[in-house]
């Protein structure tokens, strides 16, 4: 059985092990699916390079669709990363988004969806990077899973200790503002990995589109954990 199937099996057998990553009411709150591919003609490079303009566009989308959060991004081929040289490789730029983004107000609380422990954390303080980042490690009946939380507030890192146990549903941080989160409109980058090698407090959140199939093996769909009801998502 491949690891993604093992993860799905574990969740199926332990449905009560899951908690929400951000708090919402499925009966009343909505998520609007944001599109950052070339198909979105509303955004251009000038818009996304200017963080303030980019944030106003995101907020306008949420207001227009009466959505509490924006969402989207797993294995999405994004043109947005042209805003930062961080993602430019000479042979092929990294445009394939490997996690799910949840866009909302800075200060929004972020919770651990599964019990685990603090694997590592650091402030990836570069333009277009994660900013403050936490990685949790989860042991799921012998299956090791890592979950990454990027674009947090700096205060999210102040009380952490590597190895600390974390309970499902425990608050681990909050969304950072643009001055601290890598210069992005406030949002959470949530990503799952089965193997992160020797990396600490960081792991690529964007890859090469040509490597999509191999990346999917190690980086499963975060919706396996998020399980946001389709009825709450506006497309």
UniProtKB/TrEMBL annotation:
Name of this protein: Peptidoglycan DD-metalloendopeptidase family protein
Keyword line: Signal
GO MF annotation list: metalloendopeptidase activity
Gene3D superfamilies in alphabetical order: Glucose Permease (Domain IIA)
Domain M23ase beta-sheet core stretches: 96-193
PANTHER family named among the record's database cross-references: L-ALA--D-GLU ENDOPEPTIDASE, PEPTIDASE-RELATED
């Amino acid at each position: 059985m491949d690891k993604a199937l093992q993860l799905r099996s574990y969740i199926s057998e332990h449905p009560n092990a899951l908690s929400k990553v951000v708090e919402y009411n499925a009966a009343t709150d909505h998520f609007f699916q944001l599109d950052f591919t070339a198909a979105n003609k509303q955004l251009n490079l000038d818009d996304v390079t200017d963080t303030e303009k980019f944030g106003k566009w995101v907020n306008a989308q949420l207001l227009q669709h009466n959505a509490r959060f924006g969402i989207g991004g797993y294995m999405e081929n994004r043109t947005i990363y042209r805003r930062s040289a961080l993602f430019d490789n000479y042979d092929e730029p990294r445009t394939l988004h490997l996690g799910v983004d949840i866009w909302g107000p800075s200060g929004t609380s972020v919770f651990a969806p599964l019990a685990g422990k603090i694997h590592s954390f650091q402030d990836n303080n570069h333009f277009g990077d994660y900013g403050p980042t936490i990685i949790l490690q989860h042991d799921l009946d012998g299956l090791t899973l890592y979950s990454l939380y990027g674009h947090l507030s700096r205060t999210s890192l102040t009380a952490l200790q590597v190895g600390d146990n974390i309970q499902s549903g425990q608050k681990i941080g909050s969304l950072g503002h643009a001055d601290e989160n890598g210069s992005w409109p406030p949002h959470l980058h949530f990503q799952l990995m089965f193997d992160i090698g020797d990396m600490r407090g960081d792991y690529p959140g964007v890859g090469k589109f040509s490597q999509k199939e191999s990346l999917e093996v190690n980086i499963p769909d975060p919706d396996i954990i998020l399980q946001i009801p389709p009825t709450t998502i506006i497309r």
